[in-house]
Structure formats: structure tokens, C-alpha cells
């Protein structure tokens, strides 16, 4: 669909399927519904694709992919598969995206869910993942979570932030009996630093602990002695 003469707007809708090696019995079967638009007023262009009913080696795969370009005073370039880093402001014109995700059930009493994202913008590289595991038998079980988020800024100065977190909880009939959790944040390169926190809990008490260090505070330049 197109609107003429000015501003020119061109819209695109469709469905795409990639099936290899054999469409009749594919090992990888990716199905995506996509929509795109070009607008000469700014100018700007975007393309968004949503994976539905897709799988890789019989493992289901879902999520959204976005390409966004805009020029002018509010210029932006975005390539995102599965959303953005939590600390990154979502650019104007970028819709809410579903993370790339898959659900596994290696056994009837085990549920494993994996989520991930990757994004590139004009001055950042972003990626992250979240792993959730639930093992439960007759109302009793374990819940394990692990997550990673990384944000690399290229301008105006190179910097990075990487956060890791995890937890292990024992549950019985909907109640948490005990658990441990941790969090770790790395920052750099100037000054490099580390923050971490950890804790343990039971049904009656909890013991948190946290600390932070900075290499800039530990490594100081040597001074020449006075004569």
C-alpha cells in the first residue's frame, strides 16, 4: 500500500517462512508475520517481524525482531531481536517487543524456560538472557533462576555495565521454605568497579549481604617523595 504524492508512505505486510533442509520435514522451521512502513516526512522506516509457530530441532521459538531507522534531529538506528537492556530508554517509534523465548520440558515434572535479547543502536550494543527452571513433584520442588544483562556504550566514551543475578528456592505447597540469591554488577572501564550482593533465607529469617569495590579507589598513582 502506498500514499502519494507527499509525504510518501509505503506500507508492507506479509508472512515469511524459512524451512531447512526439507520443507516437508524441516529441522529448522521459522515462520514470521511482518509489517513495515516508509515515511518520507521525517524520513523514517521500520520493519517488525513476529515469530509464531516456529521451531529449531523441535524446540519452539517465539519473539519479535525490529529494524528502525530515522533521520533528522531525532535520528536513530535500531536493530533489536527480543527488546532492549532494562536501563536503556526505548527509542521513539519502537513498539514493545517480545523476547526471543523457548520452553522445554525434558520431563513431566521439569519446566525450563529460556529468554534472550540482542540489540544494536547507533552508540550501544546490548544483550541479555534469562533462564528459569522449575522442578516439582506433588507440590514440592525447586525453583532456579539466572539472568544476565549487558550494556556497552560506544559514545561519547566507551563504557560497559554487566549485571548477573541468580536464585535458588525450595518450595512446598506454594510456600518458600529456604533459598539463596546473588547479584553481581561489573562496570568500566574508567573507573572499573564491582558491586555484589548475596543473601540466604528460610521461612523464619533472612541474611542479606552486599559490598562494592572500585579499582580506581584501590589503584592510586604513585607519588614521588619530596626531597
Automatic annotation (TrEMBL):
Residues 201-214 have a biased composition (Low complexity). Residues 3-192 form the DUF6603 domain. Pfam families: DUF6603. Residues 191-227 are annotated as: Disordered. This is DUF6603 domain-containing protein. It comes from Streptomyces triticiradicis.
Amino acid at each position: 500500500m502506498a500514499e502519494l504524492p507527499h509525504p510518501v508512505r509505503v506500507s508492507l505486510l506479509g508472512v515469511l517462512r524459512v524451512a531447512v533442509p526439507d520443507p516437508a520435514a524441516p529441522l529448522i522451521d521459522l515462520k514470521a508475520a511482518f509489517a513495515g512502513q516508509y515515511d518520507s516526512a521525517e524520513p523514517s522506516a521500520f520493519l517488525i517481524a513476529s515469530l509464531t509457530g516456529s521451531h529449531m530441532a523441535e524446540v519452539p521459538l517465539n519473539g519479535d525482531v525490529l529494524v528502525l531507522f530515522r533521520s533528522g534531529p531525532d535520528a536513530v538506528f535500531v536493530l533489536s531481536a527480543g527488546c532492549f537492556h532494562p536501563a536503556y530508554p526505548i527509542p521513539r517509534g519502537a513498539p514493545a517487543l517480545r523476547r526471543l523465548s523457548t520452553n522445554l520440558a525434558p520431563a513431566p515434572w521439569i519446566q525450563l524456560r529460556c529468554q534472550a535479547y540482542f540489540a544494536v543502536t547507533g552508540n550501544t550494543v546490548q544483550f541479555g538472557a534469562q533462564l528459569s527452571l522449575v522442578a516439582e513433584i506433588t507440590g514440592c520442588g525447586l525453583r532456579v533462576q539466572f539472568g544476565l544483562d549487558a550494556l556497552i556504550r560506544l559514545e561519547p566514551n566507551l563504557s560497559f555495565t554487566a549485571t548477573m543475578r541468580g536464585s535458588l528456592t525450595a518450595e512446598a505447597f506454594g510456600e518458600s521454605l529456604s533459598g539463596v540469591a546473588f547479584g553481581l554488577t561489573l562496570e568500566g572501564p574508567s573507573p572499573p568497579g564491582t558491586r555484589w550482593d548475596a543473601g540466604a533465607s528460610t521461612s523464619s529469617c533472612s541474611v542479606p549481604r552486599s559490598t562494592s569495590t572500585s579499582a580506581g579507589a584501590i589503584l592510586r598513582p604513585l607519588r614521588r617523595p619530596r626531597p
